[in-house]
């Protein structure tokens, strides 16, 4: 039930306030409710990321809940845009000294000349050998993140699934574009390989989020409630995910 920054513009019924608070909307949303003499519900996102809900005077709390649930993804994108936290994913150079993150730690790349292709952490270095006659490519790194990610998921997913009362879902690591995770139609979970640059507690958040979708499809009040059982501090983790995630490397090479 956290929504500390919400601003209530007019006096509202406590029922309406409680409904909005109960939705556990993302903490970066500044929600403002305005009662208006109008027939339909409206959502506006303004500069600074304030979300204004224009509510007909006789609207039922259920209507507001349904409207928010239906548009939560679109509002989230608009809020991010208006707050100027548009992602700035870097392009990397595959040369000695370039920085790569793994589970929240930064390592420097060292191109090795071993004849056998390898990629491994050695102290503070990420040592990459493309193998005889081959040049290092982003694919080497993507495969490495994928392998590491598979191992980490095998370690932490069983406990999460148990906590959620579910059997361990099949997971697959792949390139998901601008998304960290997806619950697939066949109830498998896909995770972006880039996720494994983030600290482990944020990887856990992404896994818990998709796991929760196996129970609750939409980002409804029930969804946030279930997620909070797995990750009680999910609000602060989501804030860090938005911050750290916006500069994660998504595979671009320069
Ligand atoms: Zn989701």
Describe this structure in words.
The longest helix has 27 residues, at 138-164. The N and C termini lie far apart (44 Å). 37% of the residues lie in helices and 21% in strands. The protein folds into two domains: 7-82; 99-245, Zincin-like. By secondary structure, the chain is an alpha/beta fold. Residues 1-12 have low confidence and may be disordered. It is built from six helices and eleven strands. The relative contact order is 0.13. The protein has helices at residues 14-22, 61-82, 138-164, 200-213, 221-230, 234-245; strands at residues 7-8, 30-36, 42-45, 50-56, 99-102, 105-112, 118-122, 125-129, 171-174, 181-183, 189-192. It is elongated, with a radius of gyration of 21 Å. Helix 1 packs across helix 2 (61-82) and helix 4 (200-213) packs across helix 5. The strands form three sheets. A four-stranded mixed beta sheet has the order 1-2-4-3. Strands 5-6-8-7 form a four-stranded mixed beta sheet, covered by helices on one side. A three-stranded mixed beta sheet has the order 9-11-10, with helices on one face. It binds zinc ion. Zinc ion binds at residues 209, 213, 219.
Beta-strand proportion: 15-25%
**How much helicity do the residues have?**
25-40%
**What number of structural domains do the residues give?**
2
Overall mean pLDDT stands at 85
Number of alpha- plus pi-helical segments: 6
Q: What characteristic shape results from the CA principal axes?
A: elongated
Strand elements, count: 11
CATH architecture of the largest domain, please? 2-Layer Sandwich
Ligands: zinc ion
Order of helices and strands: EHEEEHEEEEHEEEHHH
Strand order in space, largest sheet? 1-2-4-3
